[in-house]
Structure prediction request, 798 residues.
Amino acid sequence: MEGLPFTPPAGADDGARLGPPPAAFALLAADGVLVGWSREAEALLGYPAAQVVGRRAAELLVTPPSDRAGSEERRPENGPRFDGTRSAVVDARHRAGHTVRLAVTLRPLSPRAEGDSAGRSPTAVLMAAELEELRWWETRQAMLQGLVTQSPVTLTIYGPGARLLWANASSVRELGGDLAASLGRSMTELFPGDVLTDQHLVDPAEFVQQILDTGEPVIDVHFRGRSPADPRRERVWSSSYFRLLDGRGEPVGVCEQSIDVTDHYRAQQRLALLAEAGARIGASLDPSGTAAELARTTVPRYADAVLVDVAAEVLAGEEPEPGTAGDLVRVADSGGEPSRRGERVAYDAGSAQAESLAGGRTTADDEAAPTRLYVPLTMRGRPLGLVTFVRGDESEPFDDGDRAAARELASRTAVCIDNARRYRRERTAAFMLQRSLLPRSLPELSAVETASRYLPADSHLGSGGDWFDVIPLSGARVGLVVGDVVGHGLGAAATMGRLRAMVRTLAELDLAPDELLARLNDQVGREASDQRAQGRDGGGAVGATCVYGIYDPASRTSTWAAAGHLTPAVVRPHGAADFLALPPGLPLGVGRLPYESAEVALPAGSLVVLFTDGLVEARGQGVGVGLGRLAAVLGERRESSADPLCAQIVAELVTDRVRDDATLLVVRTRALDARQVADWELPPDPALVARARAVAAEQLGRWGLDDLAFTTELVVSELVTNAIRHSSGPIGLRLIRDRSLICEVSDSQHTSPHARYAGNDEEGGRGLFMVAQLTEHWGTRYMPTGKTIWAEQALPVP
Prediction:
């Protein structure tokens, strides 16, 4: 009764009564006098029949009747059918004094109806009901009628065995329009699929029987299957189930109410897929690994197979030119057929794949119902490759939502592949830079036998800053150094190169290890200060560590100093493996405290192993564990030569992925025997210069180096004369026959000699100039007790 205020009557919300409200009946004579009064009428208005029969019906009304024919309060089409000629809404007076609003219908009677005791014949029957109760009943009837015939929610009743008992119009449409043919068939027959509850698939018959037995409703579970009306398409319904009872309280079936949520479900699935793809794709920083992650993420949730082709130059770390992607390489193939990974791939001109690459847009094998989507991988307008998503005959074609998801997946993959490409390019450049800055080969020296290994980190951070060097020094000595720059990438590699160059330069000045580290520390500190002053952090060497030592094969002694670095391991002949106890020193560039040296005797045949922390840092274990394993290997293989021992150490210690660069330098010491070294001590007497020349010539004769006698006598004469002139203590003369002939003269002074051009009128000043012209190399090294001037000559070719 549209337009009138509607308030449910008291007790109407209990939902228990579905039938119409009780109707009251009264018989009317032609003059409107009541000639009959039912018990329902008495219950409705409170008057017994004796008080109203014989009275005019109008006397019971508060207001005149309103004709309902054609009015806005016409009974709804699905309301009770009173088949009367007139209906009205009236206000009647209850016996208790209040007003009752009634819906009434007046219907003529047949003339054959009998009259009352007064002789009046009833000409009409008056039917009445309380208006609000009638409205409430009519609303329920409309609701029930709507659920059966108009509701988009499917209502289905299943009995034992999940067999169909009843279905509303929406459900009948899902059944293909033939309810009679579907009655008695099981849910599984009608809708092949599964009930998905708590992420577990359950059998529909067991599911329905459980609800019949327990009476516990199940709310909002997903049923995934296919309907008879559309058997090709898999659908998802959100369903709720509850038990139905008959009038005796016995279960008669389970009602299923469902709504198709396929589009919403698939949208959620696509969002979940994209979220997972964002977390998984790109974690490897490798183009091929990224492609494999895309395939693992999308198969079989999104596609039945995925093919990923990437431009060859991208795999090499280069950026492709705008336009076509050039040569493609298959890097992922999840199609289930023999893998073509690593093969070159070419697409014919005019194909959907070629058009996708050229136009930078998604294409398909069939635009109406595509089962293959070709999605380009593009970055900054440059094609990096192509992704092919494939669905088989049993799967549904891709729709617009799937296309959008494919573009998003390809976009994220392209970003990750480009990042991987850039990382590979920088990592390759850093590795090449580092390898170019490290020694290409170790020098052949009489003092030591050496071997080395460098293992770059297996890390997305790139190559680190580990370095090592073997530096030939004067007097057949050798400088040994290993260092580590904190950090990775091009900055660390460049810093490593600068440090190695500085160490070499300082070592060739014959500086003692502690003085060398002090000067290196000053230089590193200045570089760091300059970078901070310029507001940049260019990979400075703050945090770099280093250990440097000098070994003298003539005296069989070594001198070492460390700057925050792990000390070398040492194994002396017939001794146990140990680690040098060196004075601690701060890492380079972090302070200005002095460094200290320690002198260590190293008999011939001793092993010295220098390394960086990457070699001994075991995953999940402390450095001490790695040091112990290193000592054990050295103890077992003490007699091995340097290179096999180097390989054995790597095999024993590097058993896992290298998290940091690992550098290893193995040194086996040698000694110069008495037949290679001759030395004399001379008083500071000019008269003994001739004696010095003579003993030098005699020694050369014993060595069979008479061809070098003249030059050597001249060098000895000049150096000894210079030492006597500027020193007051004894003079030391030493000849060493190694890979060259070395002449050394030592004194107690620390003055620095210089070669210079002497004027035509000067009688002296030409000595060192002549030495420099007659020998290949010369120089000065300083010791706490004075200095040594040395000169080298090449040995004659046999």
